[in-house]
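Figure 3 (text version): structure tokens given as input.
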């Protein structure tokens, strides 16, 4: 008999917004989604043109990668002006219109907030780099000498300005860290979190958030949210900082979604975020599922679901009732799931998992049709090997796959060159396509509380050698059994002690389940999935 104690329960989460429980997110990389004016770069009017598609798919929230004025050395994660949409994407008015048009269709809009650093071209950084003291001198982190002062664990850029000092960079050298202070300052140039510079930066961040929220935006995905306070063991001060910001912003906008790129849901949710991701960094889990050589979703992979499940269950226990964990299909920083030889059949198993799993599902644009990771592309705007996950969306069979009317050479990035590259139009018309599979799964999730964010998860026991995974989801008197076999080898599983009155297949391929005595017997061919209503 399995222990059927729910691991997650219906919400006692303080930040709980009803809409998040049913949310299905879609991540849009704006430069690659839809080009409305033929300049080769996707834009906001292009996103507006595709809202009906997203609604058809069942999406109810979009997250748009950074769309502000930028020097684009890191695809927009180097912001020059947080209050202005980059002209290549349109105008602020286009963004306000996007919010209105999305809301008309029941879709919310989240922006990407690069909270921890600006670009070196931001006027405030330029002022901060000057020799004489000015009101921006302490808005970035400067050491007291351009020659010495190297410090543990911080990336110091020296010799780029006449100001005597080095600045701390967050990621690339052109991304100077904003000064939110140090948890335990132990050098004269390290300021405490409540010094005037750090407090001004905090105020500015709130101002930016409220500016866009005032124009109809519904929330933010916060870039590197964990990084704000420096040399902060356990991120204790960073957690307090976000609690403070969240409280202030939510006082005016209680229903917003705050999503963190933290990579540690236990910390991020304590900091007041509604959702944090399991990613390729941080406490991990995602690589065991999708990326490692022996990850679970691989036909020949050696490991079962055990490694992922262990990390997930630990995090789920720590965040239970307080916030959501997201396992995304992919994102702009990692290889698409359609890589390493995976086919559309493999992706169907993956999406069956993603869309029946608790928390908040995020679909990276194009994953729903199985767009490929394109290896070997020349790096674009600091993409390096991430560039292959950022190619133009494939809408149809027409010129440039319907992405743009520009000459091929002017496209932001080249398209998948293969003749049989997947596209939306073709898959929409084909009942057995990946796109229609994803659409059916979203529809089932949206009408079934058991499958939503806070429905209980009851994983059925797995052995190290298991190449399949079975689990129950339940809420009130609704219960589903989900079985997955991503491996090429047939598999069977006997589930003891559950004797449903009813066992009806909802979304299945190659998996059969029947009640036998007091048990359920499930047989699966290779690469199969089944969602059964009990
Ligand atoms: C995380 C973003 O997802 C990534 O694309 C970016 O390069 C870094 N943060 C720096 O902002
Ligand atoms: Ca354009």
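Below: residues designed for each position.
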């Amino acid at each position: 008999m399995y222990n059927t104690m729910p691991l997650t329960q219906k919400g006692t989460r303080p930040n709980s917004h009803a809409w998040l429980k049913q949310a299905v997110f879609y991540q849009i990389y704006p430069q690659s989604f839809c080009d409305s004016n033929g300049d080769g770069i996707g834009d906001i009017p292009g996103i507006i043109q595709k809202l009906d598609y997203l609604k058809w798919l069942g999406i109810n929230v979009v997250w748009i990668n950074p769309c502000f004025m930028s020097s684009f050395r890191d695809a927009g994660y180097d912001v020059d002006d947080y209050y202005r949409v980059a002209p290549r994407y349109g105008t602020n008015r286009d963004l306000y219109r996007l919010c209105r048009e999305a809301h008309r269709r029941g879709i919310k809009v989240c922006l990407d907030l690069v909270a921890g650093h600006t670009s070196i071209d931001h006027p405030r950084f330029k002022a901060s780099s000057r020799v004489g003291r000015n009101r921006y001198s302490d808005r970035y982190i400067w050491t007291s000498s351009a020659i010495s002062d190297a410090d543990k664990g911080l990336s110091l850029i020296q010799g780029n300005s006449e100001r005597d000092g080095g600045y701390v960079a967050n990621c690339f050298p052109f991304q100077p860290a904003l000064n939110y202070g140090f948890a335990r300052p132990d050098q004269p140039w390290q300021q405490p979190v409540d010094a005037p510079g750090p407090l001004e930066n905090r105020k500015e961040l709130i101002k930016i958030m409220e500016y866009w929220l005032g124009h109809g935006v519904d929330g933010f995905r916060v870039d590197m949210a964990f990084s704000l306070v420096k040399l902060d063991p356990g991120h204790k001060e960073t957690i307090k900082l976000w609690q403070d910001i969240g409280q202030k912003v939510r006082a005016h906008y209680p229903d917003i979604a705050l999503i963190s790129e933290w990579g540690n849901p236990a910390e991020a949710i304590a900091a007041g975020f509604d959702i944090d991701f399991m990613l390729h960094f941080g406490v991990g889990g995602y690589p065991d599922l999708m990326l490692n050589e022996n990850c679970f979703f691989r036909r020949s992979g050696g490991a079962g679901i055990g490694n992922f499940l262990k990390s997930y269950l630990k995090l789920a226990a720590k965040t239970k009732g307080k916030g959501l964990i997201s396992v995304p299909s992919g994102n702009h920083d990692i290889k698409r799931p359609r890589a390493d030889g995976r086919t559309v059949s493999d992706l169907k198993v993956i999406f069956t998992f993603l869309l029946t799993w608790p928390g908040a599902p995020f679909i990276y644009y194009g994953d729903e049709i199985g767009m490929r990771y394109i290896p070997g592309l020349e790096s674009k705007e600091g993409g390096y090997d991430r560039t292959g996950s950022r190619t133009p969306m494939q809408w149809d069979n027409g010129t440039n796959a319907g992405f743009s009317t520009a000459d091929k050479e002017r496209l932001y990035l080249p398209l998948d060159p293969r003749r049989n590259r997947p596209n939306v139009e073709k898959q929409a018309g084909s009942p057995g396509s990946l796109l229609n599979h994803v659409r059916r799964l979203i529809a089932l999730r949206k009408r079934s509380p058991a499958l939503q964010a806070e429905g209980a998860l009851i994983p059925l026991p797995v052995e190290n050698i298991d190449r399949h995974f079975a689990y129950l989801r339940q809420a009130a008197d609704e219960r589903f059994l989900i079985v997955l076999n991503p491996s090429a080898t047939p598999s069977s599983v006997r589930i003891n002690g559950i004797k449903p009155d009813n066992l009806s297949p909802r979304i299945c391929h190659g998996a059969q389940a029947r009640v036998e005595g007091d048990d359920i017997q499930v047989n699966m061919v290779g690469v199969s999935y089944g969602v059964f209503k009990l």
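The pocket of calcium ion (ligand 2) is lined by residues 35-37, 39, 41, 43 (CB under 6 Å).
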